[in-house]
Amino acid sequence: MARPDKVDAVADIADQFRSASAAVVTEYRGLSVTQLTNLRRSLGSTTTYRVAKNTLISRAARDAGVDGLDELFIGPTAIAFVHGEPVLAAKTLRDFAREHNALVIKGGYLDGRALTVAEVGQMADLESREVLLAKLAGAMKANLSKAARLFAEPASQVARLAAALRDKQQDQQQDQQQDQQPADERATD
Length: 189
Description:
alpha+beta, Alpha-Beta Plaits, 2 domains, five-stranded antiparallel sheet
């Protein structure tokens, strides 16, 4: 018969799997409690870093309908459940793993499929959502400016053409006036 505390733990982890936008599976062997605390702080409030037994995590994943992660649940396992921006959490974990060799990223889960270590690394290499949105806004603004210039160009060409025609007409009128002047007046000019 299952112990109530384990049943509650499985239910809690399954809820985390269901509500998280992504999950990153890590091995934390060799990290001190202080280092784990620092990692949790650096992940921020949108990511929960949970240490649990592999059998409990495996059962919770099955209950939540998460497939393809069972081979990752070997050794001391902790999962970062991301409830916000997955890219930021992946970057934080990658940077922490670079500083602390004891933290090993095993894989992850995003959009209904398992991720390899390389895919988690690629996700960490992406720029944050805010940066990508800013770049998109800048590109859209540049395109709108180009469009505005493109639409204004025919009007400015027409204005330049009208000014050139007016100047030409004025020159012709001056030439006609000079031709109409008597020859003696032209000589004094």
